[in-house]
Specification:
With 136 residues, the chain is α+β, with helices and mostly antiparallel strands. It contains four helices and nine strands, in the order E-E-E-H-E-H-E-H-E-E-E-E-H. Helix content is 32%, strand content 29%.
Amino acid sequence: MKLIKQSPKEVLFDLKGIIAPTTVGIAAAGKVLTDKGLKGKVKLTGLGLPSEMAEYIESGVCDWMYLWNPIDVGYLSGYAAEALVSGKITGKVGDKFTAGDLGEKEVVADGDGTQIMLGDPFKFDSSNIAEWKDVY
């Protein structure tokens, strides 16, 4: 980003894009880009809730964004719980189990604890945002 103009009341930059790592940040950026008429001039993406970002995706201010699908999170959680209760896994690093359609999952290290990674986030865009905006 390069400063292109500065006066006592105005500072302009040649900003090309915003990648917001939070649902609050991407929605706020969408509002600013909309309010300032910057659609098509500054690209926007990141992690966002479909319910908060639908208007910006539908208007073209944000072409796409990502977030984990809560249905998949719940699906994986159910299989992980069953694997723990049945003794298939203990929660130790390296434990593996099959999580239905999500395939094989492995317990991995996470700081002082462990976790099971869902995988890549889900992409939301104009082709599917209408379906998801009422879900979450």
